[in-house]
Amino acid sequence: MARMFRVLGFWTLVIALMAFAGDMIEMALLFFIQTAVFVLLGYLNFSERTYILMFWGYMVISFVGFTYWTVFVMGNPF
């Protein structure tokens, strides 16, 4: 399970580099931070239950944040 967090770190790094190449600096910084956190957690060797709980917490926070951003910050497109 720890290896999967390192894989998540790799893919967030790929997304961060593509965002940086596309001049989306804020998104790139967000994904660089996620990369650092995922790689760090991948080397801490927690139990599998802990990794699953951390991943669910990450998913809840990211979905709530995405929903908030799309509803309240982006505004109505009409």
Description:
The longest helix is centred in the C-terminal third of the chain and has 26 residues, at 48-73. Helix 1 runs antiparallel to helix 2 (25-42). The protein contains three helices and no strands. The protein has 78 residues and is mainly α. The radius of gyration is 15 Å and the shape is flat. The termini are far apart. It has helices spanning 2-21, 25-42, 48-73.
Report the biggest beta sheet as strand number plus sense, adding barrel if it closes: none
Structural class call reads: mainly alpha
Q: End-to-end distance, in Å?
A: 45 Å
Contiguous helical run count: 3
Overall geometric form: flat
Mean of all residue-level pLDDT scores = 94
Sketch the topology as an H/E string, one letter per element.
HHH
Q: How large is the share of residues in beta strands?
A: under 5%
Number of strands: 0
Helix content bin:
over 70%
Q: Uncertain spans, ≥5 residues at pLDDT below 50? A: none
| CA radius of gyration | 15 Å
Protein name: DUF2626 domain-containing protein
Pfam families: DUF2626
Organism: Paenibacillus mendelii
Keywords: Membrane, Transmembrane, Transmembrane helix
